Amino acid sequence: MDLHKIEIFCTLVRLRSFSRTAEQLRLSQPTVSGHIKQLEQELGVRLLDRLGRRIVPTDAGEVLYRHGVRLLEERDRARQEIEGLSGKVSGLLAIGGSTIPGAYILPRLIGRFKKLYPEISIRLSIDDTAKITEAVMNGELCIGVVGARVSDPYLATHAFLHDELVIAVPAGHAWANKRTVEVEALKAEPFILREQGSGTLRIMAQHLGAAGLSIDELNVVAVVGSSDAVRQAVKAGLGISILSSRPLDDDVRAGRLATVRLKGVRMERQFSVVLLKARSRSPLCKAFLDFMLKEK
C-alpha cells in the first residue's frame, strides 16, 4: 500500500463523496475510483459499500481508515519536524468547533494565525459538541473547541473563552423591552430548542434545572440543528429561544431581535479546547494551540 492511495481512501471516507474527494485532491473521479479499486484488489477485501448515493466503509474499511489516519499524521508530522529545523511551518491543520466557537471565534483566530504562517492550510469543521468531540477522539481532528465541558479520561481539556446564554425574542415581543423575566414565564412561550448533542442545549438544561425548570416543561414548537437557524426562526416569529449572545449582536443592534435575561439566573459557560491525550501533536498543532490559548 502506498500513502497516496491511503490518503485518497481516507479523504473519501471523510467526505463520503467521490466528486468532492476528486475536487479536494485535484484528481478526476475515475482516478479516485481506480485507486480505491486497486486498494481493494491488493488487500483482497471490499473497503466500501455503495448504498445508493451514500458511501459507507465496511468493517475492513473502518480498520484501514483508523490506521490510515495515523499513517498520514506521521507523514505530516515528519515533514513538519524536518521543515521546523529551518524555521519553516507548513502543512495541514485539521481543527473543529461546535456551532458558536466554530462560526464566531475560530475564523478570527485562524485568520491571524495564517498571517504568521502563510504556507499552512487549515481545514475547519463545524458541528455540534458531541460530533466535534467524537472527531477528536477518532483522530480526524487535532484540536476541537466546544461549548460544553467534556469529561472523558482519554481527553485533555483547556479552559478557553467565556460565553453567556440569553433569551432571544422577536423585536415586537412583549418581553422585548424587559431586562429580566421569571423562570416560570418560559413555560407559556412557544420555544425553539437546539438538537441533542448541542453544548448550548446541555448548558441551558443545567441552568434551568438548577432554577427548578425542566426542559420537558417547555412548550417546544421546533427542534433546530444550528444557532443560526434558531436565530432566523426567532426573527420569523416562530417562538423564543435561549442562545449564546455572540450570534445575536448584529440583530439586536439593528432592532430585529431583543435579548432578555432570567431573573436570578446567570447562564454562563466556558468554551473548552479538547485534545486526545494519547496523540502526539505535530509542530503545527502545537503552534496553533499555543497561539489560540495566548490570543484568546
Task: Describe the 3D structure.
This protein has helices spanning 3-15, 18-25, 29-43, 59-84, 99-116, 129-137, 199-210, 227-235, 249-253, 283-295; strands at residues 48-51, 54-57, 91-97, 120-126, 143-146, 155-170, 180-181, 190-194, 219-224, 241-244, 257-262, 268-276. It is of the alpha/beta class and 296 residues long. Among the domains are: 1-86, Winged helix-like DNA-binding domain superfamily/Winged helix DNA-binding domain (Arc Repressor Mutant, subunit A, Orthogonal Bundle); 163-269, D-Maltodextrin-Binding Protein, domain 2 (3-Layer(aba) Sandwich), CATH 3.40.190.10. Strands 3, 4, 5, 6, 7, 10, 11 and 12 form an 8-stranded mixed beta sheet that branches. It has a two-stranded antiparallel sheet with strand order 1-2. Strands 8-9 form a two-stranded parallel ribbon. Helix 1 crosses helix 4 and helix 2 crosses helix 3 (29-43). The longest helix has 26 residues, at 59-84.
Bin the strand percentage: 25-35%
**How far is it from the N-terminal to the C-terminal residue, by CA?**
42 Å
What's the helix count? 10
The outline comes out as elongated
Helix percent reads: 40-55%
Helix/strand order, N-terminal first: HHHEEHEHEHEEEEHEHEHEEH
Q: What ranges have pLDDT less than 50 throughout 5 or more consecutive residues?
A: none
Topology-level CATH name of the domain at 163-269? D-Maltodextrin-Binding Protein, domain 2
What would you call the structural class? alpha/beta
The major pleated sheet works out as: 8 strands, mixed
- Compute the average pLDDT: 90
Output the radius of gyration. Answer: 22 Å
**CATH homologous superfamily assignment of the domain at 163-269:** Periplasmic binding protein-like II
Number of strands: 12
